[in-house]
């Protein structure tokens, strides 16, 4: 899935304390841009309905999964490489009484034996960690029912050569970023049809400014909060420079 192991994520970016910090910005149960509000906006595009089966890749601590199950009545399988994420998500699932609709699994999405097909495969800002994109999209096609929907958002990069600063950032994070158009090509080459690839960077900038203001208003005055705010300011600068972008993608499995 990534050059990093589950242990790396659990001890670094997604340590228990790190997850709690992300929730300060995104809101309870969420670790993706815009939190619950943006998730609800994206989900409205998917035509979700009661009784369908959804796979959420990189489900984190369950925010989007719980929304899909509670708001639409769908059955959702979530997978995440982080043990910490699944441990927290499983407890939150019990608290919300969604165990009949939601199943969460720890593991690498490229290695899992799925054993079923899904009507929708959903993901929020996770594929940047996955370097084997052709293999990823091939696996998704195999687990999608004919006519099924692939729907994801992801960090992207701007057109043209990268600045040294941005290239260093990407390399340090071990991200695998594409332009929005490159992503469209990858999805189409994988055999998907009706591909929609939308650059949502303007909205991304708006979201990140709002999240930074929300965090600043908390007046936490801790070293971790200061680090988080520095990270958000740096991200806003990358977005303003046009190097870090954000894409929303929808595509159908032919059938």
Notes on the structure:
It is a single chain. The protein is of the alpha/beta class and 255 residues long. It has a single domain (6-252), classed as Rossmann fold (3-Layer(aba) Sandwich). Helices cover 45% and strands 21% of the residues. It is built from 10 helices and 7 strands. It has helices spanning 6-11, 16-26, 35-43, 63-72, 83-96, 133-143, 164-173, 180-189, 201-217, 223-240, and strands at 53-57, 75-80, 102-106, 118-124, 144-157, 193-199, 244-252. Helix 6 links the parallel strand 4 and strand 5. Helix 3 crosses helix 4 and helix 9 runs antiparallel to helix 10 (223-240). The model has no long low-confidence stretch (mean pLDDT 93).
Percent helix among the residues?
40-55%
Number of helices: 10
How would you write the strand order of the largest sheet?
3-2-1-4-5-7-6
Report the span from N to C terminus.
28 Å
CATH superfamily: Vaccinia Virus protein VP39
Strand percentage lies at 15-25%
- Uncertain runs with pLDDT below 50, 5 residues or more? none
CATH architecture tag: 3-Layer(aba) Sandwich
User: Biggest sheet: strands, sense, closure?
Assistant: 7 strands, mixed
Number of strands: 7
Return Rg in Å.
17 Å
Mean pLDDT: 93
Q: Structural class of the helices, strands and pairings?
A: alpha/beta
How many domains make up the 3D coordinates? Answer: 1
**Name of the top-level CATH class:** Alpha Beta
List the topology elements.
Elements lengths: L5 H6 L4 H11 L8 H9 L9 E5 L5 H10 L2 E6 L2 H14 L5 E5 L11 E7 L8 H11 E14 L6 H10 L6 H10 L3 E7 L1 H17 L5 H18 L3 E9 L3
Parallel strand pairs: 1-2, 1-4, 2-3, 4-5
Antiparallel strand pairs: 5-7, 6-7
Helix pairs in contact: 3-4, 9-10
